[in-house]
Amino acid sequence: MNILIIGGAGYIGSHVAREFLDRGYKVTVFDNLSSGLRENLFPEASFIHGDILLYQKLKEAMEGQEAAVYLAAFKAVGESMIKPEKYSLNNITGTVNLLNAASEAGLKYIIFSSSAAVYGEPAYLPIDEKHPVNPENYYGFTKLEIEKFLGWYDRLKGIRYASLRYFNAAGYDVKGRITGLEQNPANLIPVIMEAASGMRSELAIFGDDYDTPDGTCIRDYIHVNDLATGHALALDYIAKNNKSLTVNLGSETGSSVMEVLQTARRVTGKPIPSRMAGRRPGDPARLTASAKLARELLGWQPQYSDMETLINTSWKAYAREAGNSCTR
Ligand code: UD1
């Protein structure tokens, strides 16, 4: 099958591209390289340097493709609250463009990178797909709106989709085939890795007075190779059943900021300086997934999402970049 990976030069996209290549798909990556990196491109995949806001180029890229993975989006939660226009244009207008191009090009299937941010403050845990959706930030709002557009284009245009609600994506390719590091990361594990490798001075811990055992926030970290497998299984499912799908992808395990930091100190052997900072607005104390639906419908089972592997694979990528010798 021919597949277009839109945003395939990015952190998650490159892992997804690798997964589909490994499964024998003919992969084309479409990316504007605003945050994606050339070094994340694989020689076996074709590459189109393009932007989802440019209709004609996108439509041409979709011609002859059966499926697309739609990852291209801005994803910084804090920034989305300060610059909603940027998120409206890229995430929402980009989606309208993408869906119109897909229907004109006769694309059958779309796998969409949604987010646990669609749920907002949890009403109960673990969060399953029946949990009410009530995003607390503009980024999450854009993801939820995109899901609604997908629902309508399914009904009206017959484009089947899988909306994958990622929890906290983390880790690097377990075989070390992806080396590009995210620029100016804001997420916990890359920030810890930068502090471990000397690229930044310290980790600021956003709050230690939450109602959790050690006072720091608990999240569900899911390895990016496990996420990538989820994309391939989701495409198999929607193609086989001719039916769209919305599922959580999470490890079903909660780790606190402090636990992540302690594992990182142990695995890297680096002191990783940290300081307590105030709470970051909009952070729920705990978020953990129920991934039962993905397990049952897709046969999906995370393999690499224990904290040790998440940190170990991340450290291999960062230690190489920072010119350190990796201790494990
Ligand atoms: C958020 C979104 C998630 C989205 C992801 C993309 C929500 C609820 N979640 O995840 O859906 O896919 O962003 O970027 O909107 N932390 C620190 N210091 C730091 C960085 C983070 O203490 O320097 C803490 C945070 O307060 C949080 C945890 O680490 O408790 C994880 O934060 P982060 O990696 O930014 O992810 P989320 O905000 O959980």
Overview of the structural elements:
- With 328 residues, this protein is of the alpha/beta class.
- Helices cover 39% and strands 17% of the residues.
- The chain is built from 10 helices and 13 strands.
- It has helices at 11-22, 55-62, 77-82, 84-105, 138-157, 188-196, 224-241, 257-268, 292-298, 307-321; strands spanning 2-6, 26-31, 46-49, 67-70, 109-115, 160-166, 168-170, 203-206, 218-219, 221-223, 245-249, 255-256, 274-277.
- Helix 1 (11-22) links the parallel strand 1 and strand 2.
- Helix 6 packs across helix 10.
- Bound molecules: uridine-diphosphate-N-acetylglucosamine (UD1).
For the record, the count of structural domains works out to 2
Report the total helices. Answer: 10
- Span from first to last CA? 38 Å
* SSE order: EHEEHEHHEHEEHEEEHEEHEHH
Mean pLDDT: 96
Helix percentage range = 25-40%
Tally the beta strands.
Answer: 13
**Rg calc:** 19 Å
Key features of this structure:
single chain, 328 residues, alpha/beta, Rossmann fold, UDP-galactose 4-epimerase, domain 1, 2 domains, seven-stranded parallel sheet, two-stranded parallel sheet, 13 strands, globular, disordered C terminus, binds uridine-diphosphate-N-acetylglucosamine
